[in-house]
Amino acid sequence: MAQLELQMYDYNEWANRQIFNRLRELPKDVYRREVQSVFSSVSHILAHVYLSDLGWIEVFSGKSMNDSLMLQEQLKEETVSKEIEEMETMFLKLSERYKLFLSKMENIDKSLVIENPNGDLMETSVFEQVPHVVNHGTYHRGNITAMLRQMGYASVPTDYGLYLYLKQMENNQE
Question: Which of 23, 28, 41, 150 has a C-alpha 20 to 30 A away from that of 83?
């Protein structure tokens, strides 16, 4: 996985797995417990991240931003209602879709013209947007950490530096 985009997405998948593993260790009600925060519950954050990631892979694959946003809106209620095990499975399947897409070099350099909801156009590329997808996930994993603290529970470290360290340790053992 020499490609930076693939490595970044691998990190994103690893960090999400860390969060899911931690959530499974906690009492079942923590996933849906309402708190005063950016989102009303951890389940709402994970649904938001999933739908955003789904939206971006749809855009990367050729759909318009408007079609992507409509898809996200259509799936919102259904996604929020998923139990943690179903949500984790959805994240894993989506990760497989990303990794397959990102493993094809021609996709990385793919130009994108994104029409924002306000009508403005943005010229960009998959290469430029993968860090956005990963950063968005990082931001919301931070929200989850804060919410867990608010509920009296510790979270787990999901830093990119830790991911790199653990990958290096894993490679040294091979």
Answer: 150
Q: List all residues 6 or more positions away from 3 whose beta carbon is below 8 Å from its beta carbon.
A: 102, 103, 105, 108
Residue 102, C-beta contacts closer than 8 angstroms, at least 6 positions apart: 3, 5, 6, 9, 108, 126, 130
Residue 103, CA distances (Å) to 42, 45, 89, 93, 160 in order: 31, 28, 21, 15, 20
**Binding annotation:** 48, 136, 140
User: Model pTM greater than 0.85?
Assistant: yes
Measure the CA angle with vertex 103, ends 99 and 126; round to 5°: 85
Ordered structural domains, the chain, with CATH = 4-173 (1.20.120.450)
Cα 163 → chain centroid:
16
Q: Dump pLDDT digits (tens) for 100-156.
A: 999 888 888 889 999 887 889 999 999 999 999 999 999 999 999 999 999 999 999
DSSP symbol at 155: -
